[in-house]
Design brief:
Length: 176
């Protein structure tokens, strides 16, 4: 992610003054765990909005680009790809919206948030590939937003807990 630096922080022999303590001593890990649902929900929201943005951008692009004497949007393959992505995105939005409402109401939705996190980041990853393909060569050029999306979107399957870990949580909460 070129817009965001990633670095390792080391706190060896680091002394923190008492007045700077946040919360209670020894409870840091618990505080962190309590916020994981929210962090994963935010990642799911980012993935969903990235998918929506990529689709809107690609629809605009294929309408304007001409090949073999007609707009790229007139090829059936383009239309089918767009229709498939639009369907996935609409379904993702419906699931996500009701999850946000539940989270705002203070409900514990750990299992559903894990479902949204893996599924919506995976969908965004696939959509970044399809949308770049529909842009042709321009899609690989830094001047086009889809190139950045193609590079930045996949990491969402890794951070905030990998998608494999999301599936472990879901399976465990299903009693497996
Ligand atoms: C750009 C970026 C930003 C990040 N930002 C932050 C941040 O702000 N704060 C922070 O704390 N962390 C951050 N991370 C770290 C991120 O959360 C970890 O990279 C992530 O949790 C995966 O851990 P790992 O890299 O050690 O992978 P590993 O644990 O080494 O995993 C390697 C592979 O093995 C799989 N695997 C591991 N354990 C299991 C298992 N039990 N069952 C099945 N499969 C398994 C994983 O899913 C993965 O596919 C960031 C990472 C990146 C790349």
């Amino acid at each position: 992610m070129h817009s965001q630096d990633t670095a390792e922080l080391i706190f060896e022999d680091c002394r923190v003054p008492k007045e700077n303590l946040l919360g209670e001593e020894g409870k840091g890990f618990t505080y962190l765990m309590e916020k994981l649902q929210q962090e994963r929900l935010v990642v799911a929201i980012c993935a969903q909005t990235a998918s929506e943005d990529m689709l809107a951008d690609t629809i605009e692009y294929v309408k304007g680009r001409e090949a073999f004497g007609k707009s790229v949007s007139q090829f059936q393959n383009t239309q089918f790809k767009i229709a498939e992505m639009a369907t996935e995105i609409k379904m993702g939005r419906a699931f996500l919206d009701q999850l946000i409402a539940k989270h705002m109401a203070g409900e514990q939705v750990v299992t559903e948030v894990s479902m949204a996190k893996w599924r919506l980041t995976e969908t965004a990853r696939k959509i970044s590939i399809e949308c770049m393909q529909l842009h042709g060569g321009y899609g690989y050029m830094e001047e086009y937003k889809i190139a950045r999306r193609y590079r930045d979107v996949p990491v969402a399957s890794i951070y905030a807990g990998t998608n494999e870990i999301m599936k472990k949580i879901i399976a465990k909460n299903l009693g497996l």
